[in-house]
Write a structure and sequence with these properties.
This protein is an alpha+beta fold. It is built from seven helices and 22 strands. It has helices at residues 21-26, 61-67, 69-78, 104-111, 141-149, 214-220, 226-233; strands at 6-9, 11-13, 37-41, 50-51, 85-92, 98-100, 118-125, 130-135, 157-161, 167-170, 176-177, 182-189, 195-198, 246-251, 255-262, 267-272, 278-285, 290-293, 296-299, 305-308, 313-318, 321-328. The strands form five sheets. The protein has a seven-stranded antiparallel sheet with strand order 4-1-20-17-22-15-14, with no helix packed on it. A six-stranded antiparallel sheet has the order 2-3-5-12-7-10. It has a four-stranded antiparallel sheet with strand order 16-21-18-19, with no helix packed on it. A hairpin with a 3-residue loop joins strand 14 and strand 15. Helix 2 (61-67) crosses helix 3 (69-78). The relative contact order is 0.18.
Length: 329
């Protein structure tokens, strides 16, 4: 099958805490008003991106991949028994629930699905916006469990004020939550397991409190120092030369994520090898921004997502643009 940079049509999600920024600022569409999440790269039975450009326009991405799995996913991508990544834009107009994700062993044993390690890149944040990143220093899992049972959950959470351009790496077992007024790009393992610990006693779309999973959450919480998290975040050495206009956001066991920032008249380039496919997430783009592959040129627009099959070769970004490139390890 032909290989080329494929523009993707995402999957939108309506959740009670969502806002309207993805519609207003990023051109996302949905049959509902508030778009909480836009799944920009997803290959799941009920959530499937569709190819939106070129020869395979209209073909579900999963069908394209199945036709030549190893050739399209690459050596590292094909070693997984399911598509390995899930990439989203998330608009939190309100607070998300306090939650935690299991590791692979626990997830497969108890849910039949992989666990979840993920990272957040802060695209925008209102002044004073905060997220939950772990528990307060010195707090034990037992103390946190007691606080949850007594209705004191928020007392033992570590709240962090966030700013655009920051990255937060969230290994499985890390208690976390996005606060109100934050727009992020999320790169994660392809898993949808979430154990909610606390949801501010608010009702769901059906008017009833959303389900909590306190016992399982307490089972999987892991307490780590910043140094221990960074060791997981950058566990895989990066090959190749580091350029001035690139920033390595993560290079963990599951994925490598690099941000490129180019100006008018400048370029960035990277190779899509036979080791992995690549995802290109366009955070921002001026009118002159474009993606170049071989002798083909693809205009870039804010909020777009491209799937680049493994083995595509050298890819260049020209013009003023901010993009995130993700691959699997």
């Amino acid at each position: 099958m032909k290989k080329y940079p494929m523009l993707l049509r995402p999957v939108s999600k309506e959740i009670i805490w969502g806002g309207d920024r993805l519609r207003r600022e990023y051109g996302k569409t949905a049959p509902f008003d508030k778009i909480a999440e836009s799944w920009e790269l997803t290959v799941r039975e009920k959530e499937m991106c569709v190819i939106a450009s070129g020869e395979y326009t209209g073909l579900p991405l999963g069908a394209y991949i199945r036709a030549r799995r190893r050739s399209v996913l690459g050596k590292d991508g094909a070693k997984y028994d399911r598509f390995p990544l899930l990439i989203k834009f998330i608009d939190a107009a309100d607070r998300l629930s306090i939650q935690v994700h299991p590791d692979n062993e626990y997830g497969l044993k108890n849910e039949g699905e992989l666990g979840k390690t993920e990272m957040w890149y802060i695209m925008a944040a209102e002044e004073g916006a905060k997220l939950v990143y772990g528990l307060k220093e010195g707090c034990t899992v037992e103390e946190f469990g007691a606080a949850v049972a007594e209705g004191r959950t928020e007392e033992l959470l570590n709240f962090v004020e966030v700013h655009p351009g920051e990255t937060y790496f969230i290994p499985s077992g890390q208690v976390h939550a996005i606060g109100a007024g934050i727009l992020i790009a999320e790169i994660q393992q392809n898993s949808n397991i979430t154990y909610r610990v606390y949801d501010y006693n608010r009702p769901g779309a059906d008017g009833k409190p959303r389900e909590l999973h306190t016992a399982k959450a307490l089972d999987v919480i892991k307490l780590r120092t910043k140094e221990e998290i960074d060791a997981i975040r950058f566990a895989v050495p990066l090959s190749g030369v580091k350029a001035d206009n690139m920033e390595v956001l993560a290079s963990c066991e599951y994925f490598t994520v690099v941000k490129y920032a180019t100006d008018a008249g400048s370029t960035a380039q990277f190779d899509v090898t036979d080791h992995s496919f690549a995802s290109v997430l366009v955070l921002d783009a001026a009118e002159d921004a474009q993606l170049e592959s071989g002798d083909q040129i693809y205009p870039l627009h804010k909020g777009e997502s491209y799937f680049l099959p493994a083995g595509l070769g050298e890819v260049r970004v020209a013009g003023k643009a901010d993009i995130i490139v993700s691959e699997v390890n």
